[in-house]
Each structure stands twice: as structure tokens, then as C-alpha cells.
Amino acid sequence: MCGIVGYIGDRKAHEVIINGLKRLEYRGYDSAGIALYNGSLEIKKGKGKVAKLQSLIDSSDEAKIGIGHTRWATHGEPNDINSHPHTSSSEKLALVHNGIIENYNSLKKVLESKGHVFYSQTDTEVLAKLIEDVYSKNTDDFKRAVQIALAQVEGTYGVAIIHADYPDQLIVARKGSPLLLGIGKGEMLIASDASAVAEYTDQVVYLDDGEIAVIKKDEYQVHNLNDDSLTKEVHELALSLEEIEKGGYEFFMHKEIFEQPKAISDCLRGRLDVESGTITLGGIKDVLGKIADAKRLVIAACGTSWHSGIVGEYLFESLAKVSVEVEYASELRYKESLIGEGDVMIVISQSGETADTLAALRQAKENGALVIGVVNVVGSSIARETDAGVYIHAGPEIGVASTKAFTGQVTVLTLMAIKLAQEKGTISKEKASKLIKELSEIPGKVQKILDKSSDLDEVSNLFSYAPNFLYLGRSFGFPVALEGALKLKEISYIHAEGYPAAEMKHGPIALIDEMMPVVVIAGTNHTNDKMVSNIEEVKARKGRIISIVTEGNEEVENLSEFSFSVPETEDELSPLLTVIPLQILSYNIAVNRGCDVDQPRNLAKSVTVE
To answer: Closest Cα partner for 195 from 248, 233, 240, 256?
Structure first.
């Protein structure tokens, strides 16, 4: 959450920083700011999006060094004063910060007793003035002053700092919030996400927790907080500008929905051999035996990734006959931890930086469990810290509401479940071959759904201003119901709930009347008869039925006011198809309501704070 960009080199710093902030705006967009140095420190900031910030900057500004920030508020409401950057009391230091300083109140009281005056409600201003306070006693070494100050901090941070006494350098540090360095020719960039630097360089260094870097235009040095010098690996960034542009679509979410055939194909490429009926997953090859021998399997994730984890639970239990628990990572860290040696945890995160999921990962590793990562972003913290893992290869996902990452995660979990079942001998050769063949056809079937997406226009228009939605599914349809409801809530601000269809009569049925649209996911053959009964229960109470059905399911179609069909596939693969029309439905409704689909209120793409 939030976005940081910094630059030092020969270009106009504000142009590079503004460009980078626009690319990171999906990580936070309630306010934005920039600090530039050109003989003196100049701050421009305020509530609103990056475009508003850009209008405040003199286009002729020749500053060659600066830092910028786009904010998702934690401490302090979004307003001009609480916007980053924040400055020290002398106004010689400017700082931008992602994360949460948990002990900021106690630090603030100490600093106030020393005469520092605070103007904002943020924890970040405390950090800026703490560093200055330490620096006033260590004026010969600014880097060391930053290290000493950060050693007093409890919580998480990704920070970038400029100081008028050191006009030729940036200082950055990380603990629990991502930061990377972009290495150019005679210029250096820093950012909290690679998309901000991809236009200028493909050479990056990822900072790890507890590291600090001093960056000049043609060199950088990395140390830990004890001031030990570190040698960091330089990674080549596999990210093109085309991937992070809208490509003619009005919204990134729309583009990403329509990228799913390619994203799933990329996920399967090199892993699926239909002819031999085999699956190759190099990332877990060396630990597959340990996974097969595990006492239990725990899946930890948040949000959409949690929904894909529930699909994973059904897949692993159905195919590999292993007991699976799916946990909210945000709750797991506060429960009595029973995860330990002999257990396997799978952590799922699009960004690979989700704070709660990282905490669950670290706790499981400390307790001796084997931890497997399913992530999208190469080089992310989860990718680096897990024992093994599988990338989903979905490409950059910019829209806050996840679409292709969900289908990518489900695709990887399907591959893992089939592979594990083959390893354990819990699946017949015929069943495995059939699933593998069907899986290879999923991209084409998704494309068929997208080709007739306009069939959803009528129902989208009719229900754009419904106050509530109910989504019902059974078996593999249940997590799809959850995901469909989440998509609608996220981007259209309509209240929606996903439920197991059989649980409807245990409470939610009281809500159903002629004003309640009920979306029914009827894409699994083995639960169809029971789903028909649930639909009849809704119709008896005048609920409005919108069904997602497998082609040829006339029984459900005839009971529905609106019906959208998807190609037939194996029940285990049905979420990869039934979720697509729900994404389109949510998108259409949000557009009809005039919502900002890519930047929905109060949300940000990657949740890197608790």
C-alpha cells in the first residue's frame, strides 16, 4: 500500500517521479506529494491524485534529485497536512514512508519534550523528526544517524530520505515494506514497486528487511542497521512497458479480465504435457516428497487469494486425499500456533508482499514447517523467503480488484493438486490424463466466454442500482460465489454476500424478496440436483435468479430470469470458467454506476500494513 519513487541523475527529477507515481497510484491514491532539491528543499503535496500534484509543479524545475509518494491513509485522514513527504523541524530533511510506526506515540512524547512541534496526525512526521534529533548529535554521518533512529522504531517501514546537507544522495531503508533500487547509466531510481522503474532500467536490487542504502547517481552502498557492508545481487527485470499500459482499454481491470486466456496459457506453459499426462513443477520438485508425507496441509492467504485457497482445499482433498485447513493469514498470526514440523503451509499472494501473509509464513518457518509460495511477482518478499514455490506468471496486475491473479492462482493450485495426487498414487492414470487434457483447453474456453461477454449487458444494466446481491454456490461453486460477491463489493460499493447454497436457509433466506438479485453458480454436475432445489426455494420467495450454468443445463436455465452459460469441463476445473462472467458482471455494474473501477475508494492493491 502507498507508493514510493525516488530519483537521482541528470534528468528532471520531477518528471521521472511523477511518471513513477502514476504507475504506482493503484497502491494508494488519497493524496500525493514530492520533495525536490535544487539549492533548497521544495515540497509540493496535498489531498487528491497524482494528476493534481503534477499541476502544482513548475515544469521548468531543474532539480536532479527528489522523492515522491502516493498515499493510502493509515494514521491521519487524507488531507494536505497528512500527505507525504514530511519534514524535520529544520525543514532540511524530507521523508516519505510506507508502513506503520507502532511506537510513534511514545517517540512523539519524547520529541515534544525536546521542543519539536508536530503538525500532522501521522506516524511519519515522528520518524522525520526522530532522525533529525539523532542527526543533531551525529552530524558527521547522516547514514549512521538514520540507522540509530530506525533502531528505536517498532513496526514496519519503507522509507526514502533526502537532506539539504547531502544534496548528492538519497537514503532508503526497509523493514516489512518493499523497496528496490533501479540501476541506470549515470542515474539511480528507488521505488516500492518495479513498475515505477521499468521505463528507465531493467537492472534492479531488492532490499531485504533491516537494510539501508546510500544512493548516488552512479553508485550505491547497502548496509545493515549494524553498519556492516552488504553485497547485493542485481536482478534483471522481466517487465515490459506494454504490460503496464492500458492498451486501449478504459480500465486496467477490463484489460486484465480479457488477458486471462493468455495469463492461464503462460501459467501452463512448460508445465503441462498432455501427450504423456504429466506435470512439471520445477519450483517444488525437490520438496514434493515432503509435501506428500506431510501430516497436514495449511493454506494461508487474504482476500481473493483466500478464495483461491478454498478452491485449493477442495482440489487437494478431492484429488490428493490430504486434509487441508484454509486460514486467513490476518487471523492465523494471532491464534495459538499449532503449525510445526511435519506440516506444510502454502502461502498465496499476488504481490508477494502481503504483510499478514508474510507474518504467517515467518511464524510457520520458525516453528519448523515447510513453506511453499504461490505468488505472481518475481523477486517479491514471499518468493524469496519461502522454502520453495510456484510462480503464477500472470503478468503485472494493476487493477485493485484481482482477476487474472485469481485464475492464475487456481491454475497453479490445480497443477499442484494433480501432481501431488500422482506422487501419492491417489488418482488414476485415466483421471489425471483427463484433467490434464481439460486443463490445456481452459484458455480457449475462457476466450469463448469473453467473446460473448456482451450477453451480460442486459442483466448488468437492470441490476446496477440494486442495494444488495446474494451469491450461492455448492462445492467448487462456493468459493466462486465468495469471489463474485467480493468483486461486486470492491468496485461497485453494492453490498453482496457469498454463501454455500445449503446454508441459505440457515439465515440469509430471510433477506430474499422481489428486490434481491440472487446469483447462482451451477457449474458443477455432481451438485446440480441440490442446486435446483435451492433455486426453487429462492423463486418461492420472489428472488430474482441470475444463473451461471454449464452449457446444456436447461433445467437451471428454465428456472432463471437471466442465465449465462460457460463451456463444459471437469467439476474440479469449473471455477476457472464460472468466475469469468462474475468478473464481467461486477465490472459492468461498476462502470454503469460511474465508479472508478481501478481505484475503488478506501482500497489499495497490495496490503503491506496490518
So the answer is: 240
